[in-house]
Each structure stands twice: as structure tokens, then as C-alpha cells.
Design goal:
Blueprint (H helix, E strand, L loop, with lengths): L2 E9 L6 H17 L4 E3 L17 H15 L7 E10 L2 E10 L2 E7 L11 H4 L8 E7 L5 E7 L2 E4 L2 E5 L11 H7 L4 E5 L8 H16 L2 E5 L2 E3 L5 E3 L3 E4 L2 E5 L8 E9 H10 L14 E4 L12 E2 L10 H20 L5 E4 L4 H29 L32 H10 E7 L5 H14 L2 E6 L1 H15 L9 H23 L2 E2 L5 H6 L20 H13 L12 H4 L16 H4 L3 H13 L4 H11 L5 H17 L1 H6 L27 H15 L1
Length: 693
């Protein structure tokens, strides 16, 4: 029996935050050493940050990463074996590498072989893939300026008699995984330092390749990941996993607000070796030339058998995993975006509709979940840059609720969270002459439920003033019959300056409220409801958002109370409320049913189907709608999608939540100018005409 204690760390990094990333890495190393860990796996590129983008092209980034590793991380890592991710420049090419440190000494660098170049990832723009089976030598400057030589490439390590290999993130997602060759070399432990972004349901995929890798390769497999909103759009959920010989022996929590978190496990290296020996199909690679193996002495401290620690929360196996993931991913992402941008909180134009209500509830979730994870003192310490935040939250610069605009707040189970919410979230209901009492009351109810500082503004005179100015310039009256879009949009645009003023006064960030379904068809007013510095729900479809609000109203995330006040929102039909009340405006009358819109979007944009194929899919999914009506809606979608790419280009940054994103910066590139599927739509019309004859 040879027992070794291993750990996977999830770390919240920030691009180019050399001191902060170093401190979090050293904190994880110190915590691991204190717990008797012998081998620690840290996430991919944790020294520089994963999302440095084109800053990777600066030679100073690789140089600084090496200096931090050489002078600050390696000397600290005494008495432990640690893998640390950083970029390395070698032969005029940049490589994504994992350095292995043993007892304070850098042994060498494993270079990533398979680069992530799809979806939100652009690694081939900055890095080169390392060729299989190639070992080279890289010369890096020592602290004294004298060059030191290290092995780099497709290598593994023998540290104190324990053989350690690597699969770096994408390496484990491909068919020809490096782990197969490592197994033939008799590797005992495979470390996987990753920067694997969050997407709904993705954890199950990760667990499968960790478990299967440990079983098929006959090894202990240690998977570490980033956590938090690292650089703006991508969310990392953590979720460290350790498996040995096909069994899950350690699993960490997801969506932690902490700087880092450790998942540990004690494994028996002798047992995995004998499991390989008993497998008749296992044929080791026996070769005296070990140029791809780097050796180093290391004395492993005695380890005792410990119970396996599986810290996945019960909600992970519940009936509402997607709803839970959405609430928790958004809460963590908002918190990191706020503090990393050093914003003094958020401002939301609260319309009394579903989107703005959801955004406000997500901010409430940010505070509730953050305080639950960090404690109130820990939460406040992370946002101590906000003036007065460490004092009594209710008295620190944000004011209290406007009692003339909102009803008395009900008694709260957590008055400290309420007081903090009044500092961190300001909401404003801005009524035009077309606003009704239902949305005003709904906005008040939501503001009271989340405990925001709530204001009500009347914008009717401002709207009329702009209309008079333009009428004077045109020499004619504007009328709904001839100027419908202009008269709608001016109301949405007039609301923007007020919330910008509130944001400037509070040094806060405006949260725009448009969702992905609206973005797909351009059902939004540029410089109106799209105004803001961050658009937290622009990556989620309206149909799910409405279902999520109903779930939040009645159930809510595990461990947190539901929001019954949302019944004022969920009972309404979604409406922009920009036409006169007698027009009875609703979103779905303007567009199409949201469930159909979202299905068309998935078929057309995610699955890249032609208009005829989309129509055929909709005919099978929605048989209750006739062919002529489906034709109208499919045509409408394609025309609006193509026409409104310029709007999507101007949206504030949004969070990546699934593989149906429309963000043109990171996922769905589409030309701003195009012919708009005109030929394909003509073919669709002929197809439907022949079908209905």
C-alpha cells in the first residue's frame, strides 16, 4: 500500500493580475500543505490568467509569468509537488504549458497538444499546439540573469517514484487523448489543469471523461478548474473532480465565491498499479531511452486512509438543475464583474416586466449567495473599495427606499442583506403616458421584495418635448398611424439618461435587460432598453426566463427563500408597453409565440438549418399552427435576424450560459450586411405553396 494525498484547486483568477493571482495560488499551496497534501493541481494558465486575449502577444506577459513562477511561486512550494499553468515562449512560438514544481524546484513544462478553437475559445490565435512525441529544451533566465535549461513538450515526470502525467483541458476532450500513451508509460497520476467555461449540463461531461480516463488508463485522475467571472463574459464554475481506477473519490462544490477551494483525496498508488498489472490487454511501453521523462527525488509524507469527500450539493441531482445553475452562475458572475470593474453597485430600469424583474432578482441572489458562502464580513471585505461599505450597510451612501414611491418593506428574515441590497441596487420605474398601473405596482412589488433603493420618475413631459422638437423640424404632426416605431422608441430612449445619471452619482454599473430572444430579432431599442455596461440576461432565451421566474416565485434555489412577489410579473403577458393602452400591445403579437421563436432560433442559428429545414422542423414541433402561419413566422425570424446584426454588435457584454449564444464577439459571428436569405426564403414560399395546394 502506498498512500498519497492529492488535491485539485479551483482558483478565481483575473487576467494580468500578477499580484492577485500569485496570492491566490500561494494561498492554495499553503492550504494544501497544511492539510498534508503531497500533489496539488492548479488550473490552466493560473499565473497570467486564462483570458488575457491579445495581451498574450506581448512578450512581457510570458516574461512576467515566468518571473512570478520562478521568484515567488516555486520558492514557496517547499515540501509539496505543484502544477502551475503559464504561457512559455519557445522558438518564437507561444505555448500553453503546465509547469511541475517539486519541493520548490521547477522540473519542466508540459505543453498543451490540443488547443480549444471553437465556441468562445480562440487559443490558436495566441498559442501553438505541441506536436505529439516531441521533447525539447527551453532556456529561461534565472534570477541572476544566467539562462537555465528545462525540458518542455510531450513529457511526464517521475517524482520520488510516483509517475505524473498531464492532460491540459482540451487534451481530455478529444478522441486521441494523451492519457492513453501516458498509461503505457506506467503513469500513476494524471493531472488536468483546466479553464473549462460553464454551460448548462456541462459538469456531467467533465465527470464522465475524468471517471472514464481513470478507469481506462488505470490511474488516479485529478481535475482542477477556474472559478468565477474571470474576464467578463465566460463564467467558470469550478467543480474539481478526483477519480481513481474508475471510482469517484473527490468532488468539490461549484460556483464558490471564495478566492480558491481545495478538493482532496487519499489514493493508493500501489492499488492502481496492480489493477493495470491484472489487465490482460495492458502492454507497457518498455524503453531504456527516457528522454521524455523528467526525474526528481521527493519524500512523500505518510498519509492515512480518509473517507472520500464528495461535496456536490443536493441540488445537483434535483429536478431543477438548470434553474439552479442559472441562478448560481449569474450570482457569481455579477459579483465578480462588479468587484473586478470596481463598480459601486448596479442600477436597473425596472419596468414591471419579466426581464428587469429577473435582473433584480439575480442581484438579490448575488448578495444572498455571496454572504452565505463568505459570511457578511468576507463579502464586505471583497467590496471594501466601495466607500463606506464596511459600515452599517443601510447607512453607507446608497440611501434608503423612497417611501413615497414604494410601500413599506415587509419584515425580512435577513435585515443585513436587505440593508446591503439598498446600497448595491438602485431601481427606477419610469412612467410614460402609456404606462399602466399594473406594471407600476409590479415594479414596486419587486423592488420591495429584493430590497432595492427604488425611485419613480415621470418621463411624459420629456417624451412630449422631444416629439414637439421633431415635429417643429419636420413641419408636421407625428401620429401612431405613420410614425409608430419612432413614437415607441423615443419613450425607451428617454429613460436612458436618468438611469445613467443615477449610475454616475453612485459610481454604479447599469444592467441592461434585453434577453436573447429579443436580441435574435432586434426587438429592442438601441440606446433605450439596451443601454448599460453589462447585459446579464442577453445570453438566455425569454421562454426559459419566464419559466425561471415562475420557479423562483414558488420554489427558488435550495437554501434560499422564493420570491412570492413575482406573481405580479408572472401573471402578465410580456409587453413593451410603448403603444397607447387601447392598442393592447404584447410582445408575442408583435413577434410570434416565444416558445416558437426560441425553437426557430435554435434550429436556424445553433443548428445552422436552411429556412425550408427550419420550417419542416417547426411543422413537426408545432402542429397546432397552420403552414401559412408558420411560413409568416419563419420568414419574419430570418428577415429580422439578418437585419438586426448591427444591434447585436452593440449590445453590452453578456454572460455565456449555453451553446446557443448570439454574442458576435465570442460565439455567433454573422455579417452586419448580407442579402438576408432572400433566395432561400423565396424557395420556402414556393415549398409552402405546393404543400397547401
Amino acid at each position: 500500500m502506498q498512500l498519497i494525498k492529492l488535491a485539485a484547486a479551483v482558483v478565481n483568477t483575473t487576467p494580468l493580475d500578477w499580484d492577485g493571482n500569485r496570492d491566490r495560488v500561494l494561498g492554495a499551496v499553503a492550504a494544501a500543505r497544511a492539510q498534508g497534501v503531497s500533489i496539488l493541481c492548479l488550473p490552466e494558465l493560473c499565473v497570467s490568467g486564462y483570458g488575457c486575449e491579445d495581451a498574450f502577444h506581448s512578450p512581457g506577459v510570458a516574461e512576467m509569468a515566468w518571473r512570478v513562477l520562478r521568484d515567488e511561486v516555486a520558492p514557496f512550494a517547499r515540501g509539496i509537488v505543484v502544477s502551475v499553468g503559464l504561457p512559455v515562449l519557445h522558438q518564437n512560438a507561444l505555448f500553453n504549458t503546465a509547469a511541475l514544481i517539486a519541493d520548490g524546484r521547477v522540473l519542466g513544462f508540459v505543453a498543451k497538444r490540443f488547443l480549444a478553437g471553437d465556441g468562445i475559445h480562440y487559443e490558436p490565435r495566441w498559442f501553438k499546439p505541441w506536436p505529439t512525441g516531441i521533447v525539447s529544451q527551453v532556456v529561461l533566465p534565472g534570477a541572476d540573469g544566467v539562462g537555465q535549461t528545462y525540458a518542455i513538450g510531450d513529457i511526464h515526470f517521475d517524482v520520488g517514484g510516483v509517475k505524473i502525467g498531464f492532460e491540459i483541458c482540451e487534451d481530455a476532450w478529444v478522441a486521441k487523448r494523451p492519457g492513453g500513451a501516458l498509461a503505457l508509460e506506467g503513469v500513476d497520476v494524471i493531472l488536468n489543469p483546466s479553464a473549462s467555461h460553464f454551460a448548462f449540463g456541462k459538469l456531467d461531461v467533465r465527470k464522465r471523461f475524468v471517471l472514464e480516463g481513470s478507469r481506462a488508463f488505470g490511474v488516479t485522475y485529478v481535475y482542477a478548474n477556474l472559478v468565477g467571472n474571470e474576464s467578463g463574459r465566460a463564467i467558470y464554475d469550478g467543480g474539481a473532480v478526483i477519480a481513481s481506477a474508475g471510482k469517484l473519490v473527490g468532488q468539490g462544490p461549484r460556483f464558490t465565491f471564495k478566492d480558491f477551494d481545495l478538493t482532496t483525496a487519499v489514493v493508493d498508488v500501489a492499488a492502481t498499479r496492480m489493477a493495470q498489472a491484472r489487465t490482460s490487454s495492458f502492454t507497457p511501453a518498455i524503453d531504456n531511452d527516457r528522454s521524455d521523462r523528467v526525474g526528481a527525488p521527493f519524500a512523500y509524507p505518510a498519509a492515512k486512509i480518509e473517507p472520500w469527500v464528495l461535496r456536490g450539493a443536493p441540488w445537483e441531482d434535483g429536478d431543477h438543475v438548470k434553474e439552479e445553475e442559472f441562478a448560481r452562475a449569474e450570482a457569481l458572475a455579477l459579483f465578480d464583474y462588479m468587484r473586478k470593474s470596481r463598480s459601486g453597485g448596479f442600477v436597473v430600469s425596472l419596468s414591471g416586466g419579466a426581464d428587469s424583474a429577473a435582473v433584480c432578482c439575480l442581484v438579490r441572489g448575488m448578495v444572498e449567495m455571496g454572504v452565505a458562502d463568505l459570511g457578511m464580513d468576507g463579502f464586505l471585505a471583497k467590496i471594501a473599495y466601495i466607500k463606506g461599505i464596511a459600515n452599517e450597510p443601510g447607512q453607507s451612501g446608497g440611501g434608503t427606499s423612497d417611501r413615497s414611491a414604494a410601500p413599506d418593506l415587509p419584515d425580512r428574515k435577513n435585515p443585513e442583506v436587505d440593508a446591503l441590497m439598498r446600497v448595491l441596487l438602485t431601481t427606477a420605474y419610469q412612467a410614460s403616458e402609456n404606462s399602466g398601473p399594473v406594471t407600476r405596482a409590479a415594479a414596486r412589488a419587486v423592488a420591495a421584495a429584493v430590497a432595492s433603493t427604488h425611485r419613480e420618475f415621470e418621463i411624459g413631459d420629456l417624451v412630449k418635448g422631444y416629439v414637439r422638437i421633431v415635429e417643429g423640424g419636420l413641419g408636421r404632426k407625428l401620429a401612431w398611424q405613420t410614425d409608430d416605431i419612432a413614437l415607441q422608441n423615443i419613450q425607451a430612449r428617454v429613460r436612458a439618461p436618468s438611469v445613467w445619471m443615477l449610475a454616475n452619482i453612485k459610481n454604479a454599473l447599469i444592467l441592461a435587460t434585453s434577453n436573447r430572444s429579443e436580441a435574435a430579432v432586434g426587438y429592442a431599442t438601441m440606446d433605450g432598453d439596451t443601454s448599460g455596461g453589462l447585459s446579464p440576461v442577453a445570453g438566455i432565451d425569454k421562454n426559459f426566463l419566464r419559466a425561471w421566474l415562475r420557479w423562483l416565485e414558488k420554489t427558488g434555489p435550495e437554501g434560499f427563500a422564493p420570491v412570492p412577489a413575482l406573481r405580479a410579473i408572472t401573471a402578465q403577458a410580456p409587453t413593451a408597453e410603448l403603444r397607447p393602452p387601447d392598442k393592447h400591445q404584447t410582445d408575442e403579437d408583435d413577434l410570434m409565440p416565444y416558445d416558437l421563436l426560441d425553437a426557430i432560433e435554435r434550429a436556424a442559428i445553433r443548428d445552422k438549418r436552411t429556412p425550408i429545414e427550419v420550417y419542416q422542423v417547426m411543422r413537426s414541433i408545432f402542429p397546432q399552427h397552420g403552414p401559412e402561419q408558420l411560413l409568416i413566422w419563419v420568414e419574419r425570424f430570418f428577415r429580422l435576424f439578418c437585419r438586426n446584426q448591427w444591434k447585436r454588435e452593440r449590445y453590452a457584454p453578456s454572460f455565456h450560459l449555453d451553446d446557443e449564444n448570439l454574442d458576435p464577439k465570442t460565439w455567433c459571428r454573422f455579417p452586419i450586411l448580407s442579402a438576408g436569405y432572400e433566395r432561400e426564403l423565396a424557395e420556402l414560399r414556393r415549398f409552402v405553396e405546393s404543400e397547401v395546394r
